[in-house]
Amino acid sequence: MNSEFRQIWIIYGALAMGQIVLALVVVYWVTSEGAAEASEIPSLDYIVPLSLIGAVFTAYTINKMLAEKASQRKGLSAKLAHYKNRVIIRSALIEGANLLILISAMLTGKMNFLLFFLLGFGMFILFYPRMSVFSQEYALTPDELKSLDPKI
Fold first, then answer.
1. Helical packing angle, 44-68 and 76-108, nearest 10°
2. Sequence-distant (≥ 6) Cβ neighbours of residue 41 within 8 angstroms
3. If you ran DSSP here, which 8-state letter would residue 85 be given?
4. Count of domains in the chain?
5. What does the alpha-carbon distance between residue 44 and residue 46 come to, in Å, rounded to a whole number?
6. pLDDT tens track for 13-68
7. Interior CA angle at 58 toward 47 and 113, to 5°?
8. Residue 150 — pLDDT band, cuts 50, 70, 90?
9. Are the beta carbons of 114 and 33 closer than 8 angstroms?
10. Residue 87: what pLDDT?
11. For the chain, what is the mean pLDDT?
12. What Cα–Cα distance (Å) separates residue 58 from each residue in 31, 53, 54, 64, 129?
């Protein structure tokens, strides 16, 4: 496998692991005895779901817009760079909403916010970088495919 594509997976994995670790910290924080007094911030009841909806919609829209320009790229390096940017942009948008959700849960002590996090993380997983999607959307030539994965 090409080292550039491996870098995309590493970046994506790091973003995912950061969210998972923070979620575990928040769960521990909220459920542990002696945790700080939770504060009531009523506006977060609206901000949390709206931020997730907005982030998913924006990530989907930007990803779709960038995907339409994908096949215009010439050369494997340009295609990989463009795909890496797409993965980072869409992942960062959803991760941002997930981090807001986790911080909101920590501030308020509301465990139900973690359900929104699970939904957001599920959407994050749906945007997982896939070699098959990359090769199809970027109309890779047989030579480009072979240089990405010599087993093909």
1. 180
2. 104, 107, 108
3. H
4. 1
5. 5
6. 999 999 999 999 999 888 886 555 666 777 888 899 999 999 999 999 999 999 98
7. 30
8. low
9. no
10. 93
11. 87
12. 33, 8, 6, 10, 18
